[in-house]
Design a protein that fits this description.
This protein is of the alpha+beta class and about 150 residues long. The protein is built from 4 helices and 5 strands; from the N terminus they run αααβαββββ.
Length: about 150
């Protein structure tokens, strides 16, 4: 998970005082985010992820469909009947949506995957599992983290 690229891509609000790199940041004394900061590491990743979910929910339009759908057009190309990487991605997102609706925990690796899932499922809560893995479940289901257990 490249968190800093995702923060810039989705314009996720953050402050230097939320960062573990705060003592060595020149912008921390001004309490404003550094627009060129590529070393932002949240001091509490669980809170940051759940704030990101709230930000996404406020700034996205929900899909009118129940699952992710994409139509592959072979513009001047040959359809060789091989499964494309995009098909694997769509299947992964749809499996996550299905499992969340069943009340199970799913794991994603990027904020873009989280964005896609939130277009279809409400009431999602995130817990950082470590090594770039984000555990997602509906708010009424407990998620076990390496560091703590939330119920």
């Amino acid at each position: 998970m490249n968190l800093n690229n995702d923060i810039l891509r989705y314009a996720i609000p953050h402050q230097c005082n939320q960062c573990t790199m705060n003592p060595c940041c020149d912008f921390s004394c001004h309490n404003t985010p550094n627009p060129r900061c590529m070393k932002f590491v949240p001091d509490n990743m669980d809170d940051f992820l759940n704030d990101t979910i709230t930000y996404f929910e406020l700034n996205m339009t929900k899909s009118k469909y129940n699952k992710l759908q994409r139509i592959c057009t072979y513009n001047r190309a040959t359809n060789d009947k091989v499964t494309t990487l995009d098909t694997y991605y769509v299947n992964f997102i749809n499996d996550c949506i299905s499992e969340l609706r069943k009340g199970k925990t799913v794991y994603v690796f990027k904020l873009s995957q989280l964005w896609e899932i939130l277009r279809f499922v409400d009431g999602v809560k995130a817990v950082y599992q470590g090594d770039g893995i984000i555990g997602l479940a509906c708010k009424n289901k407990a998620i076990k983290s390496k560091n703590n257990i939330k119920e």
